[in-house]
Amino acid sequence: MSAGSASVCVVDELVERVDDQDRVLGMVVSRRQAIQEGWLHRVAVTVCRDERGRILVHRRSEQVSRFPGHYEVEVGGAANVGESYEQAAARELAEELGIRALPRLLFRFINRSGISPHWLGVHEAVVPDAVVPDPDEVAWHGWLTEPELGSALLEWRFTPDSHEAFSRYLAFRTAPNEQL
């Protein structure tokens, strides 16, 4: 497909199917098919904080295929074949925000909100204030305090993953000795 003088190629990601215990089943499928069939696969996201504790929030570009124009509390995407949650989270931070960071996996759960069920690995990373978002992925970004984010979650149109992941993230941060 051609857009002006630029050529646009849409390639579907390949993911591994996993079971309800997050074990790889040895089947590689397109993410599109996993979503259509409701097959479990892995998605890695990172809640980004700055040195002052503010949380990065962004609005998805209108050109993305899933939830265009929605706000998100986390940065992430599907884990590619053979990638760990941590590797996928680090790759997504580099692709979407132009930063190199080592996100820390906090917990994972089967997320049934959104367009299909998937295992969601939720990470945290302290990142620099000066991020350089990919304009094809991110239309706007800003840093919010937790109270500001609480208000925004009620007023703005966020992705379903944002609501579920962030509520669990807050619970994780206040729970003693939480385990994966």
Describe this structure in words.
By secondary structure, this protein is of the alpha+beta class. It is built from 4 helices and 11 strands; from the N terminus they run E-E-E-E-H-E-E-E-E-H-E-E-E-H-H. The strands form 4 sheets. It has a 4-stranded mixed beta sheet with strand order 8-5-10-9. Strands 7-6-11 form a 3-stranded antiparallel beta sheet. A two-stranded antiparallel sheet has the order 1-2.
List the SSEs and their pairings.
Layout: E1 2-3, E2 6-7, E3 14-18, E4 24-30, H1 31-37, E5 42-49, E6 55-60, E7 71-72, E8 74-78, H2 85-97, E9 104-111, E10 118-126, E11 138-144, H3 146-155, H4 160-174
Q: What are the low-pLDDT stretches, counting only 5+ consecutive residues below 50?
A: 1-10
State the total count of DSSP E strands.
Answer: 11
Radius of gyration: 16 Å
Q: Tell me the helix content.
A: 25-40%
Biggest sheet layout: 4 strands, mixed
Distance between the termini: 43 Å
- Beta-strand residue fraction: 25-35%
Q: Helix/strand-derived class?
A: alpha+beta
Spatial order of the strands forming the largest sheet: 8-5-10-9
Tally the helices: 4
Q: Roughly what is the average pLDDT, rounded to an integer?
A: 89
Order of helices and strands: EEEEHEEEEHEEEHH
Shape: globular
